Amino acid sequence: MEHNIKRSVTVYSWHRQVEAGYLTWEDCVKASVMMGCTGLELLGQLYFRYCPEALPEDIDSWKKMMFKYGTKTICHDFFVDMTMYNHRRLTVKEGVDIIRRHALFAKSIDCPIIRLGGTALPEIAEAAVPILEDLDIKMGQELHNGPSSFAQPATQRLLEVIEKVDSPCLGIIPDMSCFTQRIGERTIQRGLAQGVDEKFARETAALFEQVSNEEFRKYCLDIMDKSKDEAVVNWLGGVWRMEYFDPDILRQLCNRIVHLHGKFYEMDDNCEETTINYPGILKALIEGGYDGYISAEYEGGPINGDTFEPFRRYQKMLDKYLGKYPDANYTEWPDCRPAPGGGFGAPQQAAIEGTLENWYDDGECTGFALDVRSFYYRGVPLALFESAYVNVDGEVYGPDSMRVFVDGEMFKFEDMCDVTLHYWNKGYPAKLIISKPGGLSKGDHQVSAITTIRAYYMREGFAAKSTGTLHFADPITMTIS
């Protein structure tokens, strides 16, 4: 059957490698082209400083890169952070203004589509339609497994709004995670490595394939509520929201789909995705007449130490079902090494090696300082930089004892709660200044730091668990000279 489905890549898939210095953003664009994908999906707040009010030089450099490689930015991902302020939710007008700013940014980089992530109110999307139509920008709400899936009441309200408004500028962006048909072996093995009993993990995986989404979610949440086994609770926290819907829903909603997230978790040696029903998905899209992009978005590990190999296999899988796509004629791939560090929910080492020093105010040593990185995948307004903790030689210092030097100015955490025009840009350190009269002694110290971002659906960081226990990554040795 003929179709006009096009392919793209979410270039932020490799942002950890960029942060580690293994890749540049140009390497990521080049790798996408080498896979035959000339469409690029972008998380603007990852690449562009102060996005959506991006710096002109960043916009110029991005446009030059698109021209150099013959690529198009086909979707810009952003969030209406309903948790922007820690004491209240955003109003509808505030949410619409965020959409307006991101739509203007998308226009500035010649990007026709913006993806609204998270669980923003349908009323916000509806109120933004006149702005989107005026700018000729399409906006799709991401429909992801869990809090924004097809089963959620908010999603049904959104679909009702889309039908009522009936504007080509407002639609949906389904994520293929909604069509997960089994819990993969990699997910099971990750649980075993965390200490989950294998019999329990495999019984849970089997149950997922036997019961409804609602029954499986209730099963997981009941155990998480009652269990005192932290390994079990953490593992179930990653699988409880897995869902399977009949892919035919894509055919039914095809006229409302403005873009697609080609989520994939596991690719086998035969270039098949082992957990998601891609044959059913692609059949439904072709029958529905979808003519936009499928943007490859990977949430798995490297294959044989190669972070590009899963994407190559994914494109070969699409070749099977959609027909051969042209490859680029590059022979040498950029650095494919995986970056160090764990995934979401794992304690990440935020301290930047070699930055520990004593701090002086007016010639008096009032404490010590160190630089920290953010492991969240985008730059954020300081209102979302919620807290930090530093462990030095077993002594823990919390946010009440700190000042933060970031974006050129000094703040206390308590004062950052409503600061929305200063940013902690991705890839740039923040300096924590900890009060400790006399500072630290000269010599070696064991240091670990964690930073917490209060995003719309999670806390990245993430030391503070529901039990109140702080979880630090393994310390690194730093020296006060």
Keywords for this entry:
5-stranded antiparallel sheet; 8-stranded parallel sheet; TIM Barrel; 2 domains; 32% helix; 481 residues
Summarize the structure.
The chain is an alpha/beta fold. The chain has 14 helices and 20 strands.
Task: Give a verbal description of the structure.
This protein has 481 residues and is α/β, with parallel strands linked by helices. The protein has 2 domains: 6-180 and 243-322, TIM Barrel (Alpha-Beta Barrel), CATH 3.20.20.150; 357-462. 32% of the residues lie in helices and 22% in strands. The chain has an 8-stranded parallel sheet. Strands 9-10-17-14-15 form a 5-stranded antiparallel sheet, with no helix packed on it.
For the sheet with most strands, the description reads: 8 strands, parallel
Under the CATH scheme, which class of the largest domain?
Alpha Beta
Radius of gyration: 23 Å
What is the topology, as strand order, of the major beta sheet? 6-5-4-3-2-1-8-7
Tally of contiguous helical segments? 14
Assigned CATH architecture of the largest domain: Alpha-Beta Barrel
Helix content: 25-40%
Write down the overall mean pLDDT: 91
| Head-to-tail CA distance between termini | 70 Å
Could you tell me the number of beta strands? 20
Question: CATH superfamily membership of the largest domain, which one?
Answer: Divalent-metal-dependent TIM barrel enzymes
Examine the coordinates and then state which fold CATH places here, giving the name of the CATH topology of the largest domain: TIM Barrel
The number of distinct structural domains comes to 2
| Residue runs with pLDDT of under 50 for 5 or more positions | 459-467
Outline: globular
**What fraction of the residues are assigned to beta strands by DSSP?**
15-25%
Structural class by secondary-structure content = alpha/beta
